[in-house]
Amino acid sequence: MNRNLARLVRSSLVSSLALAALLTVGCSSNRLDPLPVPKAELNGNLPKWYPEKPWTAKEGQSQIYIQGKIVFDTGSATIHKYGESEKVLKTLLQFVNDHPEVTRFRIEGHTDDRGDEQKNQELSAQRALSVCNWLVDNGVNHLRLLAVGFGQSKPLGPNELAEGRAENRRTEFHVAEIDGKPYLGKDPTAGGLVLDVPSLEERKREEEERKKRGPAAAPPTLKWKPTGNEVKKVPGGQIEIDPTQGKPK
Predict the structure, then answer these.
(1) What is the pLDDT of residue 228?
(2) Burial class (CB within 10 angstroms; exposed 0-12, middle 13-18, buried 19+) of 71
(3) Which helix (H) or strand (E) holds 148?
(4) What's the whole-number mean pLDDT along residues 110-128?
(5) What is the pLDDT of residue 54?
């Protein structure tokens, strides 16, 4: 009798465990997988055209791709002297010197979307001008160069991501004229905020004039803030007294 009871208990226990396992499997199979978190995708790597691959006008591509990046001080048009900047500038200079048929280049600056839109466009144009000035300092005719700022208007990556913002902060190099004629039928001065590039002599003269003028005089420091209600002294004899009222008139 005890043996039959033990057999019955074991059989019931096995059945209960099997049922629990089936219920567990059934519940897990009905459970939906969590939705993947959407991720903004960055553009793929840009082609490394120069100097790995020579550029020719027949290919119909205006942009010159150079490996690396010109870096600027934060919020400034000053070129960062360390890192990749010098290498990119020297490669760009090599391209300009190797292609005398390219009579006009557009150096285009871009920013991310942080900050004021108009200030970003002005900053991007000034950064492009800094690159042009570097080229002029190294022997390039300033008439071959245009400095252009697009600000935040042409992003390559999502500004929501740090990687995207870094990708958007960039300087691009475009062929604008071949032998004095617009390349690909595009107006070299169309698009963006375009700045004229001064010659080396013009910049030197401007710097000399700035030194002659000296630093701008700082406004005087006031020890008190005028309100317009201050009591003013009036010289005696200038106030007439109305005898009927006993008050100055």
Answers:
(1) 59
(2) middle
(3) strand 145-151
(4) 97
(5) 83
